[in-house]
Amino acid sequence: ATPTALMVGTGRGAQLGILVKGPEVLESTRRVDTVVLDKTGTVTTGEMAVTDVIVAGDTSFLRSSGSSGGSSEVETVLAWAAAVESGSEHPIGRAVMRRAEGLELPEVGEFTNLAGAGVRATIDGVPVSVTAPRDAVGEIGDELRTAIEDASAQGATPVVVSFRDVVAGVIVVADTVKPTSAAAIAELTRMGLRPVLLTGDNEGAARHVADLVGIDEVIADVRPEGKVEAVAALQARGRVVAMVGDGVNDAAALASADLGLAMGTGTDVAIEASDLTLVSGDLWAVVDAIALARKTLGTIK
Ligand code: ADP
Ligand code: MG
C-alpha cells in the first residue's frame, strides 16, 4: 500500500489529514528516532468484543445482593458490569455494554473513571468495579486466576468484576489489529525508526499484538504514569521520542514526548495533549508526517 499524499502547504504546515498545532512541530517531527505506540485503539481497532464471561465459583453473595430474580449469574454479573461501564468511553466499556444489550441494567450512582485501571460506581449504594486484574477489589480465587492467565496467554484482555469487596467474575474481551498497522510499522522501521509498543494491558495481549505487527520491544501492564516514565526512560537514553495514542490514559505521555500524535478517532484529552492529530486514525499518517517533515526540512536521515 502506498500512503496517500496527504499533506500540502507552506511554512504553516497546513495539510489534509494531519492537523498540526504549530509550525515548530515540523522540526521535532524531523528529529524523531523512536515511535512509541499505544496498543488499544492505536495499533488495534479498539472495537473490542466480549468473548467470555466467567462467574466466581462461590456465588452466594450474588443471592444476598438482591439481584433480579430469574436471570442467570452470568447475566447478573454482565448487567452490573455494563451498568458501571455505561459511564466509560473505553473500548472495553463499549464491548461490555454491547454484550449486555437486552439485559435490564441497574441504576448506578457515583461513577469514577480510574484511567488505565478501570471503572467504579455504586449500585444500590454498593460499590461495583470493573478493572484490570492487578487493580481488582478483593481476592481472586484459583479458578478465576486460571481463566485470567488463559485469556492473557491467548492474547485477550480479562477484566475483573467486583461487588462490594468480593470478586464476582471475569469478563474477557478481544480486539483486532487495524489492517494497515503492520505495513505502516514495517515502513517506520525501514525509515530507521524504532517502534515500541506501550500498553496498560497485560503482557500476553501486548506480545500477541506486537508479534502480529512486527514490534520487538514491548512495555506492558503500565499505568498512565508508567507511560510517562517509559517515555522519559527512552529520552534519558538519548532517544527522540514520538508517542502515538488515543486514550485518556495516554494524555500525559503524549504531552511529555518530544512529539505527541493523537488518533483523530481518540478522546479529546489525547488530542489536546498532542502536537499532531491524525484524522484517519491510521498509522500510515505517522509515516506521512515524518516523511513530510524530513522532506520539507531537507534532511533525509
Ligand atoms: P491501553 O494502554 O492498551 O490503551 P488502558 O491503559 O486504557 O490500555 O487500560 C489498561 C487496562 O486497564 C486495560 O487492559 C484493562 O485491564 C483496564 N481498564 C481500563 N479501562 C477499563 C474499563 N473501562 N473497564 C475495565 N477495565 C479497564
Ligand atoms: Mg488506547
Model regions low in confidence, pLDDT < 50 over at least 5 residues: 1-14
Distance between the termini: 23 Å
* Beta strand count: 13
Instruction: Using the 3D structure, state the CATH architecture of the largest domain.
Output: 3-Layer(aba) Sandwich
Task: Tally the structural domains.
Answer: 2
Record the strand order, biggest sheet: 1-13-12-11-2-9-10
Question: What ions, cofactors and ligands are bound?
Answer: adenosine-5'-diphosphate, magnesium ion
Our count of helices gives 12
Please trace the helix and strand order, writing H or E for each element.
EHEHEHHHEEEHEEHEHEHEHEHEH
Q: What is the molecular shape?
A: elongated
Rg measurement, Å: 21 Å
Main pleated-sheet profile: 7 strands, mixed
- Mean pLDDT across the residues is 89
User: How much of the sequence is in beta strands?
Assistant: 15-25%
CATH superfamily of the largest domain: HAD superfamily/HAD-like
Percent range of helical residues = 25-40%
CATH fold assignment of the largest domain: Rossmann fold
Subcellular location: Cell membrane
Family: Belongs to the cation transport ATPase (P-type) (TC 3.A.3) family. Type IB subfamily.
Protein name: Cation-transporting P-type ATPase B
